[in-house]
Amino acid sequence: MEDHQDAQTAENDTEEFKAQAAGEPAAASADELQERVQALTAQSEEYMQRLARSQADFDNFRKRTIREKEELGKYASSKLISELLPVIDNFGRALETSPEGEGSESFVKGVQMIHRQFENVLLAEGLTAMETIGQPFNPEFHQAVMTVESDEYEEGIVVEELQKGYLLKDKVLRPAMVKVSG
Amino acid sequence: MEDHQDAQTAENDTEEFKAQAAGEPAAASADELQERVQALTAQSEEYMQRLARSQADFDNFRKRTIREKEELGKYASSKLISELLPVIDNFGRALETSPEGEGSESFVKGVQMIHRQFENVLLAEGLTAMETIGQPFNPEFHQAVMTVESDEYEEGIVVEELQKGYLLKDKVLRPAMVKVSG
C-alpha cells in the first residue's frame, strides 16, 4: 500500500519535470536548465534507489517465503500426529492386556496387525518413540514427574517411563513422562 | 536476478548523468543542457515505471503467497490422512468380526473405544465418510467396480459399498468403491 503511494507520487513528480522540460524551451536560461539538470539527476537517482530497495525487499520476501513453505511442508502433519498420540498410547496399553483364549485369537492378531500398520504410517511420516530408560535426565526430552530411590542407577537417570515421548523428525513432539533416580 | 541487474544498470546510467551534470557546467550550451533535461526526464520516468512495476509484482506475489499458505494449512494433513485410510478400513473390518466370549469382552470394548477415539480425531480434522447406498451413481464421488441387477433400485443407483469413500473438508480424499444397479 505505502509503496504504491510512493509510485503515484513519483508519477506526479515526473509529470511536473516533463512540463518544465517541454513547456518553454526557448525561454529557459542556461542557469535554469542547469538547475533542472541537477533536480532531475537527483530525482532519477532517488527512483533508482527506491527501485533497488523495492527489488531487494522483494528478493528477501521471496527467500523467506521459500523457507516458510519448506518448514510448513516438513511439519504439516505435526498437529494431527500430536492429536493421534493418545490413540497410540491407548492402543499400546490395550494390547498389553489382550486375552489369550482361542475364540479371540484371530481378533487379537487382527488388532496387533492394525496397530503395526498404524505405527508404520506414522514412522514413515517421521515419528519416532524416544529411548528413555537408563538415559541421563534431559529436560529437553523428559518431563520428570517423580524422583525415586534407585540401587541400580546413579542420580539423575531415567528409571521408569510413565508415558512414551515422541520426536517428529528432529523436533520433540511430546516429551516422555518419566521417573528419575534421586 | 534479472531485476537486480536492471537496478545495477540503472545505477551506472545515473552515475553517467551525474558526471555530465557536474563535470563541465560552464561549457555546456543551452541546447546541450536542453538535451540533458530531456534525457534525464526520460530516464527518471523509466525508473518510475520500473518502480511501479516492481511494486505491483511484489504485491501480486504477496497476495498469491497468502492464498497458497491458506491452502497449505487447510489441506496440510491430507497426505497423512490418505495414508491412514487403510488403517481405518482394517479397523472397521476387524470390529465387524469381534469375538463375543466373556474373556475377551473388556479387550473388545477397549478396541472399540480406541476406534472411536481415532475416528473422532480425524472427524475433527475434517474427514467425513460418504453416504453412498441408494444415491445416484456419481463418478466424482464413486468408483463403480461392478454393475448388478437390482429389483430394489432403478438403473444407475449405488446398491452396495465395497470400500468407504471419504471427503476431507470439501475435497474428495478417496472415492467410494461401489456396485451400481444396471
SSE blueprint and pairings:
The structure is a homodimer of 182-residue chains.
Chain A: H1 2-23, H2 30-74, H3 78-96, H4 105-124, E1 127-129, E2 142-148, E3 158-163, E4 166-168, E5 171-174, E6 176-181
Parallel strand pairs in A: 2-6
Antiparallel strand pairs in A: 1-4, 3-6, 4-5
Helix pairs in contact in A: 1-2, 3-4
What features would you describe in this structure?
The structure is a homodimer of 182-residue chains. Chain A folds into two domains: 2-74; 78-181, Roll (Nucleotide Exchange Factor Grpe, Chain A, domain 2), CATH 2.30.22. Chain A has four helices and six strands. Chain A has helices at residues 2-23, 30-74, 78-96, 105-124, and strands at 127-129, 142-148, 158-163, 166-168, 171-174, 176-181. In chain A, the strands form two sheets. A three-stranded antiparallel β-sheet of chain A has the order 1-4-5. A three-stranded mixed β-sheet of chain A has the order 2-6-3, with no helix packed on it. In chain A, a hairpin with a 2-residue loop joins β4 (166-168) and β5. Chains A and B meet through α1, α2, α3 and α4 of A and α1, α2, α3 and α4 of B.
